[in-house]
Amino acid sequence: MSVPTARSLFFELIKIALGNKTELSKAPSAKEWYCIYNESGKQAIAGVVFEGVKKLPDTQRPPQDLLFEWIGLSEQIRHQNKVVDKQTAEIWSQLKKDGLEAAILKGQGVATLYGELATFRQSGDIDIWVKGGYKKVCDYVQKTLPTEDLAYHRFYYDYFEDTEVELHYRPTLMSNLIDDRKLARWYNSFGAESFVYLEDKGFAVPSLEFNRIFILTHIYRHFLFGGIGLRQVIDYYFVLRAQNDGRCKMEDVRKTLSELRLIRFAEAMMWILHTQFGLEEKYLICGLNEKEGRFVLGEIEQTGNFGRGETRYKYQHLLKLRKLFAHGSHLLLHYPSEVIWTPIWLVYHKVWKWRRKREIRERRLWKSRACLTPEGKRC
User: Fold this and answer.
1) What are the extents of the domains in the chain?
2) How far apart are CA 32 and CA 9, in angstroms?
3) How many Å from the N-terminal Cα to the C-terminal Cα in the chain?
4) What is 63-108 written as a DSSP string?
5) 227 CA to centre of own chain
C-alpha cells in the first residue's frame, strides 16, 4: 500500500470484521480509504473487510462514492457465493450417487466455519477430495467427462460452464519428494469415515483435525510457488478458531509439522494470526516467530492473491517457469528444502504427466477399436 498509515488501518479493519476490535484508531483520509479498498481487492477479502466497514461509527466511514462501490462489490460476492454453494452441493451429490466418497476441500468447505461472514468470503473454484486413489478417479473422469487436463494431484473436471471444478485424488503435495511421501502417509490416514456431512449445506467436508495441517500446507505451497493472499490466511484463522475451546492434541500436531519441515512457516503464521488478526493464544498450534512472521506477511502483501499482484521481477512478460525460479531464489534462505527440490520436482512431474496422458490415450484408442465390428464399422 502506498500510504503507510493505511496499512495499519487495513489490519485494524480486518480485526473489526473478525470481532476482535470495535473501531479504528483514527478516521482514514479519502486517500487511505482507497488504498484500503484496493488492498482488500488484491488480497481477495473485499467482502469480509466490508463487514468491518459496516461496524464502524459514522465518523469513520469511507467517502460515499467508495461506499456505494464497495456495497455493489459485496453484493456480487454474496450472490456468487450462493451460486457456488448450490453448485458444490450438486456435484457432491452426483459423486455420492455414483458411489464415490468425497469431501469439499478449502473454499466452500472452509467458508462454513465463517459464521455470519460466510456469504462474504470471496469464492473461487470447487476443489473436491475423492477417496480411492489415482486409478479410481481417472476411470471415473474418463467415463463421465473425458479429459487429459491432469496434474500430480488432480483432474480438471469440466462439470459447470462458469465454475472450475478440480477432482483431487491427492489433497495436496510437496516438491520435496521425500516429504511428499510423508505427507501422503499423513493424509491417507484419514479415511472417508472422517468426513463430516453438513446437512444444511448438502455436502461433506474434512475434519478439523485434517484441516489444521492441510490448510497450512496449502498456504505454504502457494506462498512458495507464486504467492498467496490474505483470504487463505483468514481461512486458517477460522479453522483454528473452530477447535472447540482451543484444546487439541498439540503434541501430535507439532510432531507432524516437524516431520514435514513446516515448523518455521507455522510459527510465522501464528505470529500473523495472533498480532494482525487477533487470534487468541489458546488457539495457536505452536510458538510465534516474529522475524519470520514479518517476512511472510511482507511477501503476502507484495504478491496478493495467488501472486496476481507481483511486480518485482523484470521477467513478467516471459515464461512462468522463469518467474518461478526468480521467486524461489528469493525464498531460498528461508525455505531451502522445497526451493532446492523444485527443479527435480518439475522434471519428475513432467515425466509423470507424460506417462499418464499416454496411458489415457492408449486406453481411449483401445476402447475405440473394441467398438468396431469385423467390417470396421462402429458398434
Assistant:
1) 1-62, 80-206, 207-311
2) 8
3) 64
4) PHHHHHHHHHHHHHHHHHHHHHHHHHHHHHHHHHHTT--EEEESHH
5) 11
State the pLDDT confidence band at 363, using cuts at 50, 70 and 90. Answer: confident
For residue 198, the surrounding DSSP H or E stretch is strand 196-198
Q: What is the DSSP letter of 233?
A: H
Give the phi and the psi of residue 326 in degrees, each rounded to 5.
-65, -45
Half-sphere exposure of residue 152, counting CA atoms within 13 Å on the CB side? 16
Q: What confidence tens digit (pLDDT) does each residue in 27-82 have? A: 999 999 999 999 999 999 999 999 999 999 999 999 999 999 999 999 999 999 99
pLDDT at 366 over 50: yes
What is the SS3 assignment for 152? coil
Amino acid identity, residue 345? W
- In single-letter form, the type of residue at position 197 comes to Y
d(CA 331, CA 289): 17
Task: For residues 60 and 222, give the distance between their C-alpha atoms in angstroms, rounded to a whole number.
Answer: 35
**CATH dotted code for 80-206:** 3.30.460
Task: Please state whether the predicted TM-score (pTM) of the whole model is above 0.85.
Answer: yes
DSSP letter at 128? E
Q: What is residue 277's three-state secondary structure?
A: coil
In degrees rounded to 5, what are phi and psi of residue 372? -95, 140
Max CA separation in the chain (angstroms): 83
pLDDT at 164 over 60: yes
In contact, 157 and 169? CB cutoff 8 Å? no
- Can you read off the three cell numbers belonging to residue 337? 528444502
Is 261 in contact with 178 (CB distance < 8 Å)? Answer: no
Our CA angle for 305, 83, 201, nearest 5°, is 100
Q: Please write the tens of the pLDDT for every residue from 118-136.
A: 999 998 899 999 999 999 9
Going by C-beta distance under 8 Å and a sequence separation of 6 or more, which residues neighbour residue 65?
Answer: none
Q: Which residue has the higher pLDDT, 231 or 5?
A: 231
300-339 burial, b for 16+ CB within 10 Å, e for fewer?
A: bbebbbbbebbeeeeeeeeeeeebbbbbbeebeebbeebb
Residue 233 grid coordinates: 490466511
Q: Which three cell numbers stand for residue 300?
A: 503476502
CB 108 within 8 A of CB 35: no
Distance of alpha carbon 296 from alpha carbon 192, whole angstroms: 34
